[in-house]
Amino acid sequence: MKRICLMVIKNLVMVPYLYLKLCYYAWNQKRIPDEKKLALFKEIIERANRAGNVTVHSYGTEHIPKDQSFMYVPNHQGLYDVLAILSGSPCFFSVVMKKELEHVFFLNKIFQIMGAYSMDREDVRQAMKVIINVSREVSAGKNFLIFPEGTRSRKQNTVGQFKAGSFKCAIKAKCPIVPVAITDAYQVFDTDSAKPVTVTVQYLEPVYYEEYKMMKTNEIAELVEKKIKNAVKKIEKNS
User: Fold this and answer.
1) pLDDT tens-digit profile of 99-118?
2) d(CA 159, CA 149)
């Protein structure tokens, strides 16, 4: 809460303008080019980061596929994760989020602009509809992000167990899976502190369909989880 207050206070003059711009983009999200959406997100995140003592270091963007749609698959630390990835991503993407985030102020506008899908993991039928819709959109050329842990780990930089079902969208779309390792993002919004924090986002080499097409979903989950865990350990060791 302290950091959010700092972000708002230091940007007090710009907050009404930027929020109204977010609302306009949300109402017209189908008509506004993805490049303009991403540029707006980056502007807002950059202003918020400067005001809130947040630095984001992004590595490995050269691994992100340029000639086909893909799915980002990161570890999940907190409410700042999507913003951290947006700040470094060279391309626009949408998100599969949990249903509860539909009503989080500010983030709900971000998700609306992104064309995000909310998933109720307790409703199997609704979750399956989301998987089908996302796989169709990825097949049609849209990039997506899904958190395979399902919820925040709440254990700082400890990576939780990846759920096999999270990879069904990628399998149906036959798209590359881009593992993303995040460290220290939990410190931004999930602690009551405004001290300077450096968040690291590392985009790892993609796992292409040809590599995982013969694997079961739980095997894919274990493979990607292992890649991210190893990357997180290296980041912590070198920090």
Assistant:
1) 877 777 888 899 999 999 99
2) 8
